[in-house]
C-alpha cells in the first residue's frame, strides 16, 4: 500500500433540533453541489483513491480482460414478434451501446440468430452508439413503437440525472420529427392509433407526479393527470391487447388505477377502484374482462376478475396462499400466466382458457381448474416472463437463469407443453457449468428466524474460502439466484459467492418484507450479521467481504456498525448511509414517498429515535472498522453523492482501521457509468479490490 495521505474534510458545525434532540452534522456542507470546496474535496478523494489503489491496476486490467474475453461482444438478442415485425437488439465488438433493430415477420417462429451475422432485411430503429457520440454518459429512458409499427418514441439522458428528452422518429422514412419534449421521466405509452403519446414528468423531489398527452405535430401538450399526494408516483402504459391505456398511481402501500379506451386518447380516464390505504392492486386486460391482482385481505395477493363495464367489482379466482406470493399476471387471448414466488424461488403458472362455456367467466373459471405450473430441474434458479408483446399467441417467452446456468431464453409451447431453448448467453473461454455447484443454506437469526442463503463456488474450491456476501433487503426486492460473467473472476480464484436473503426483501413473501421495514428494519441488519457469522461458524468462509448497493449500501453501513469484526472488507455502492438526515428533509428525493418504507422521523419521535439508532452515518464510532470502498456518482438523483462522502469523512475522522476509500463518478448517475466497457472496467476495479481483501 502507498503512504498516500488521505484528504481531511473540513468540519463546519451544523445543528438541527428534532423532537428535542440536537443533531450535529459537521459535514452537511458537502451537500452543496455547487460549492467549489465540494468539488475540490471529491476530486481530492478520487486522487487519494487512485494513488492508494495504484498497485491494483495490473489486477484490475487482468479482471477486465477476463470479463471481456468471456463475453460474446458481437451478439444478438432473441427477436420478439410484434405485429408485422420481429424486434431485437444487437451489440458489436468495440461499441459501448446496443443497437435496436427489426426485420419483417414472415413466420410464427423467430428468425434463427447467428452471433456476428446480421439478419436479412434488417432495419435499424435506434443506434445507441450513434446517439451517444462522444458523451461520457448516455442512457435511453423510453423506446416505444406505435401499434402499427410506423413511429418510434424515444428519450435520452446525457448526464445521468434521469431527466430525459423525448423525440419521435418516423420509421418508414427515418426522419426525426421536430417535436421535442424535455425533462421527462422514464417510459410512456402510445394511443392505439399512434396519434398521441403519453408521458410523465417529475417534481423537484424526483417524483413522477404528472401525466401529459402529446399529439404529434402540436406544441401545447395537455396535462391529463396530476397527483397531489406526495407519497404517490404515477405511471402510464398500454395493455398488451392495445385496448386500454392504464394510468397507475401508487405509494409504497396503496394503489389506484385509471383506464381509458386507447382509441379515444382525448377521453377521460375512469377510476377502477378508489384508493384505500394499504390496498395495492393492478389491472390487466384479458379481452372480455379484466384480471385484478390485489392484496385486499390477502397478504400475498389474490387474483380476481372484473367485467369491463364494472372493473371495480372483483370476483376471486386464484385464492390467497400463505406460502405463495403472486407477483404479476400476464393476459393473452387464449391463456394467462401468473408469475409467483414460493420457498424463495420464482415460478410460472399457466391458466389455459376453457374452450367451452357461454360466458367469459365460465371460460376463465375453467382455466383456474386446469391451471398448471412449469417445472424446472435445478435446486436454485430464477424464472420469469420475458418479452411477450403479442396478445394472440400459442407461445410464452420466458427467461431462466441460475447461479451456474447463464441467462437463457425459452419459448414454451402451450399446446405441447414443450420448452424450446432459443438462446443461452454465450460464455466464452471454455466455461463448463459442471465445474461449479450451488447450494441453499440457512442461517439462524437472533430471534430464531431461519434466513435463506444462496451459495455458489467451484467444485474444487476447498472450504473455508474467502467469501463475498451480498445483501439488499428493502422494498420487497428479491435478490434471486442468477448468473454473472464477472463473478467467474472471483470463483475461479477460489472465492465463494453468497447472497443473504434477509428480511425486508421479498424472497419469502410479503410477510418477509413486512418484518424488515419501518420499526422492524433492524431485522434486515441483524439477519445479515447472522448470515456472516453463520458462514464462518459453519466452515464456509474464512474471510467475508460484504457488498451491497443503494438500500443495500445502508445495509452495509448498518451491519458494519453492528459487527465490524466479522468483515474483512466492505463494498458499498451508491449507499443510502445518511438515511436519517435524508428522510428528515421533505424537499429531497427518497423522502416523503419513502415514509411508508422507513417511517416518518420528521413528525414521529419514536420513528426518529428508532432510525437514529441504526442509520450508519449517525452511529460511526471509534472502533476499528474493516477497509471500506464506497462508490457513488455525482449526478445520482436517488441516493445523493454527499451521503457516502459524509460517511467516509466521518469514518476517517473518528474511527480506527480502514483504509476508507471514496470513488465518485463525476459524470454518471445511480447506475454508474453507462457504456458496457466502462461498466466492465468499474466492476473490474471493485473485484480487484475485493480479491486483495480476500487473499492478502
Describe the structure concisely for a colleague:
By secondary structure, this protein is α+β, with helices and mostly antiparallel strands.
Tags for this entry?
19% helix; alpha+beta; 5-stranded antiparallel sheet; 696 residues; Rossmann fold
Secondary-structure blueprint of this entry?
Blueprint: E1 15-18, E2 21-24, H1 36-52, H2 57-70, E3 75-76, E4 80-82, E5 85-91, E6 99-104, E7 123-127, H3 128-132, E8 139-145, E9 151-157, E10 164-170, E11 176-184, E12 189-190, E13 196-202, E14 208-215, E15 222-226, E16 233-238, E17 244-250, E18 255-261, E19 270-271, E20 281-285, E21 289-294, E22 302-307, E23 315-318, E24 324-331, E25 335-342, E26 345-352, H4 360-369, E27 372-373, E28 382-385, E29 395-401, E30 408-413, E31 418-424, E32 436-444, E33 450-458, E34 465-470, H5 488-491, E35 496-500, H6 510-514, H7 522-537, E36 541-549, H8 551-562, E37 569-573, H9 579-583, H10 595-598, H11 605-612, E38 624-625, E39 628-633, H12 642-654, E40 656-657, E41 660-665, H13 676-695
Parallel strand pairs: 34-35, 34-36, 36-37, 37-39, 38-40, 39-41
Antiparallel strand pairs: 1-2, 3-5, 4-5, 5-6, 6-7, 8-9, 9-10, 10-11, 12-13, 13-14, 14-15, 16-17, 17-18, 18-19, 20-21, 21-22, 22-23, 24-25, 25-26, 26-27, 28-29, 29-30, 30-31, 32-33, 33-35
Helix pairs in contact: 2-13, 7-8
Amino acid at each position: 500500500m502507498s503512504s498516500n495521505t488521505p484528504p481531511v474534510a473540513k468540519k463546519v458545525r451544523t445543528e438541527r433540533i428534532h423532537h428535542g434532540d440536537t443533531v450535529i452534522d459537521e459535514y452537511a456542507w458537502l451537500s452543496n453541489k455547487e460549492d467549489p470546496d465540494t468539488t475540490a474535496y471529491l476530486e481530492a478523494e478520487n486522487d487519494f483513491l487512485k494513488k492508494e489503489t495504484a498497485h491494483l491496476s495490473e489486477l484490475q486490467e487482468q479482471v477486465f480482460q477476463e470479463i471481456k474475453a468471456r463475453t460474446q461482444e458481437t451478439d444478438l438478442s432473441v427477436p420478439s414478434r410484434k405485429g408485422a415485425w420481429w424486434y431485437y437488439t444487437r451489440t458489436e465488438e468495440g461499441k459501448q451501446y446496443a443497437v435496436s433493430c427489426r426485420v419483417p415477420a414472415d413466420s410464427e417462429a423467430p428468425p434463427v440468430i447467428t452471433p456476428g451475422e446480421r439478419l436479412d432485411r434488417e432495419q435499424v430503429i435506434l443506434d445507441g452508439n450513434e446517439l451517444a457520440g462522444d458523451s461520457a454518459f448516455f442512457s435511453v429512458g423510453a423506446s416505444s413503437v406505435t401499434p402499427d409499427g410506423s413511429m418510434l418514441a424515444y428519450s435520452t439522458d446525457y448526464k445521468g440525472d434521469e431527466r430525459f428528452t423525448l423525440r419521435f422518429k418516423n420509421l418508414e422514412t427515418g426522419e426525426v420529427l421536430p417535436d421535442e419534449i424535455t425533462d421527462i421521466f422514464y417510459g410512456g405509452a402510445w394511443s392505439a392509433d399512434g396519434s398521441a403519446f403519453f408521458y410523465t414528468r417529475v417534481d423537484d423531489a424526483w417524483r413522477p407526479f404528472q401525466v401529459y398527452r402529446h399529439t404529434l405535430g402540436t406544441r401545447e401538450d395537455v396535462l391529463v393527470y396530476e397527483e397531489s399526494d406526495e407519497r404517490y408516483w404515477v405511471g402510464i402504459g398500454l395493455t398488451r391487447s392495445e385496448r386500454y391505456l392504464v394510468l397507475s398511481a401508487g405509494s409504497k402501500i396503496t394503489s389506484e388505477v385509471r383506464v381509458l379506451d386507447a382509441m379515444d386518447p382525448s377521453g377521460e380516464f375512469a377510476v377502477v377502484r378508489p384508493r384505500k390505504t394499504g390496498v395495492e392492486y393492478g389491472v390487466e386486460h384479458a379481452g372480455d374482462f379484466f384480471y385484478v391482482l390485489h392484496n385486499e385481505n390477502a397478504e400475498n395477493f389474490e387474483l380476481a376478475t372484473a367485467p369491463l363495464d364494472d372493473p371495480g367489482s372483483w370476483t376471486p379466482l386464484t385464492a390467497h396462499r400463505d406460502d405463495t406470493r403472486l407477483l404479476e399476471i400476464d393476459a393473452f387471448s387464449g391463456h394467462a400466466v401468473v408469475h409467483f414466488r414460493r420457498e424463495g424461488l420464482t415460478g410460472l403458472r399457466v391458466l389455459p382458457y376453457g374452450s367451452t362455456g357461454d360466458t367469459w367467466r365460465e371460460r376463465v373459471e375453467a382455466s383456474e381448474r386446469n391451471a398448471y405450473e412449469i417445472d424446472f430441474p435445478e435446486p436454485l434458479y430464477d424464472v420469469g416472463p420475458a418479452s411477450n408483446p403479442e396478445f394472440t399467441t400459442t407461445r410464452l417467452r420466458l427467461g431462466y437463469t441460475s447461479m451456474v446456468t447463464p441467462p437463457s431464453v425459452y419459448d414454451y409451447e402451450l399446446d405441447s407443453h414443450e420448452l424450446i431453448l432459443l438462446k443461452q448467453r454465450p460464455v466464452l473461454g471454455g466455461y463448463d457449468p459442471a465445474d461449479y455447484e450451488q447450494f441453499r443454506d440457512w442461517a439462524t437469526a437472533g430471534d430464531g428466524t431461519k434466513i435463506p442463503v444462496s451459495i455458489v463456488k467451484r467444485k474444487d474450491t476447498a472450504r473455508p474460502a474467502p467469501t463475498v456476501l451480498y445483501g439488499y433487503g428493502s422494498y420487497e426486492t428479491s435478490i434471486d439466484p442468477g448468473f454473472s460473467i464477472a463473478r467467474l473472476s472471483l470463483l475461479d480464484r477460489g472465492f465463494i459467492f453468497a447472497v443473504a436473503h434477509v428480511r425486508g426483501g421479498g424472497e419469502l413473501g410479503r410477510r418477509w418484507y413486512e418484518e424488515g421495514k419501518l420499526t422492524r428494519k433492524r431485522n434486515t441488519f441483524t439477519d445479515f450479521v447472522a448470515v456472516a457469522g453463520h458462514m464462518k461458524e459453519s466452515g464456509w468462509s474464512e474471510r467475508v467481504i460484504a457488498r451491497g448497493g443503494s438500500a443495500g449500501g445502508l445495509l452495509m453501513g448498518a451491519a458494519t456498525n453492528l459487527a465490524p469484526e466479522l468483515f474483512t472488507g466492505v463494498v458499498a455502492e451508491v449507499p443510502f448511509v445518511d438515511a436519517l438526515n435524508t428522510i428528515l428533509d421533505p424537499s429531497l428525493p427518497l423522502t416523503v414517498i419513502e415514509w411508508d418504507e422507513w417511517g416518518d422521523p420528521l413528525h414521529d419521535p419514536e420513528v426518529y429515535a428508532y432510525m437514529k439508532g441504526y442509520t450508519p452515518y449517525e452511529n460511526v464510532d471509534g472502533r476499528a472498522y474493516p477497509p471500506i470502498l464506497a462508490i457513488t456518482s455525482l449526478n445520482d438523483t436517488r441516493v445523493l453523492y454527499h451521503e457516502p462522502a459524509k460517511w467516509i469523512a466521518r469514518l476517517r475522522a473518528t474511527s480506527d482501521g480502514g483504509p476508507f476509500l471514496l470513488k465518485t463518478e463525476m459524470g454518471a448517475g445511480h447506475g454508474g457509468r453507462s457504456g458496457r466497457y466502462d461498466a466492465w472496467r468499474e466492476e473490474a476495479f471493485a473485484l480487484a479490490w475485493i480479491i486483495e481483501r480476500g487473499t492478502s
